[in-house]
Amino acid sequence: MGSVSLKIGDGTARFKRATLCSSAVNILMLFSVITTNLFALYAFTFSPKQHLDNPFHHPHRNISLISQHVSLIIKEIDSSQRKLAQMEKELLGYDTLDLSRPNLAAELKLFLQHHQLPLGKDSRTGITEMVASVGHSCEKSADLLSQYMSYKVSGPCPDDWSLAQKLILKGCEPLPRRRCFAKTVPKPGLTSLPVSLWKPVSDKIVTWSGLGCKNFNCLNSKKLSRDCVGCFNLTNGYETQKYVKARSKNDFVMDDVLALGSGGIRIGFDIGGGSGTFAARMAERNVTVITNTLNVDAPHSEFIAARGLFPLFLSLDHRFPFYDNVFDLVHATSGLDVEGKPEKLEFLMFDLDRILRAGGLFWLDNFYCSDDEKKRALTRLIERFGYKKLKWVVGEKTDAAGSGKPQVYLSAVLQKPVRI
Fold first, then answer.
1. What angle do helix axes 20-45 and 59-92 make, rounded to 10 degrees?
2. Distance between CA atoms of 36 and 34, rounded to whole angstroms?
3. 254 belongs to a structural domain
4. pLDDT tens digit string along 83-129?
5. For the chain, how big is the Rg over CA atoms in Å?
6. Structural domain count, the chain
């Protein structure tokens, strides 16, 4: 009923359980074998009525008739096996990637190949074989996935991080592991904490392949998102004032929010953290923050790491790889906005609620409300969780890109209740 991931050495293996569905498949296979054997017995003992008195009157005709029956039986067996294999794939659910399709990379076939447990079924867990951990939606991008897995074993990996990110954004997550050496980029000039938090990062220590800009000056001249306008500038501009100086009533000062924390704030999770400034300000206050980000139009992950902070390269469609009730604080900006059906945001919110401890804070920071209906829908969703509203501000502010048109933003600090 599902699957279990285990860490074995440096590999992740996913195992399928022996389930009621797999028992049904075994019964069907047994029924097929019995049926085909009965057909075979009938074929070899059958004689036409007109030859009962002299069975050897037309021996060649009888042999031909028997051969036809045998051929039909073999075809029936092949058809039954194909149907059973398809039924088993549908019952397993995740095993839908067709490894027999042409032009599929050999490394991908090897990685996805099932491996029987050497000692048979595990009596404690019911596991019978090891199954590779790979995203279910990879089936929809099999050609791109095969391209990603086309490389020389033990050689250098292709410079294709943008291809990997494209697969992730298509739902192919987790990606399969590879047996090649990733490109290394020398990183001279890195400094230790706390100096690294605000020291400008050199253009030479990050990877610019696949990006339109080739330096940070170029990035700082663009609006990469609503929350990242000049966010790679650590010496001038608003990035140096974030969370310590408010520009509008929607901007909460970090020390004021931390004072609301029940039992203290020690570890946090930041969603769509831009260049990592939220985590940097928290680090100054001895709070460890993990920043979730992707390298969309900029080398976010490398920049955050160069500041001595923890980047997590993960999309918002992936279940967060954390245990329940472990974070004291979850911080989210407009990056929390996931386009599509309302249910998609619900799944995300429930996962955020899962990793936040009781009494922990959910800080919704300048969430852009494109219209009143979106604001009401978000408000109704938040109220379903029963969080205590410690701060709640809806206000207008001018777009940071300089359009001059006031836009509506929601900022809130909410406290997760104890549920029994």
1. 180
2. 6
3. yes
4. 776 665 554 444 556 777 777 888 888 888 777 777 777 777 778 87
5. 30
6. 2
Q: Are residues 177 and 222 in the same domain?
A: no
Residue 48 is assigned to a structural domain of this protein:
no
- In DSSP terms, 368 is beta-bridged to 409
CA distances from 23 to 16, 33, 35, 216 (A): 13, 15, 18, 59
Which residue, 79, 109, 88, is CA-closest to 24? 88
Query: Looking at the chain, how many residues does it have?
Result: 420
pLDDT tens per residue, range 118-164: 777 777 777 887 777 777 788 888 889 999 999 999 999 999 999 99
Q: Is residue 6 part of a domain?
A: no
Strand ranges (DSSP E) for 84-188? Answer: 115-116, 127-132
171 and 222 co-located in one domain: no
Enclosing domain of residue 394: 216-416
Question: Is the four-CA dihedral 337, 341, 343, 344 of positive or negative sign?
Answer: negative
The per-residue pLDDT of the chain, averaged, comes to 82
Domain ends where: 164, 184, 204?
Answer: 184
pLDDT of residue 122: 75
Q: What is the pTM of this model?
A: 0.72
Q: What pLDDT is stored for residue 86 in this prediction?
A: 64
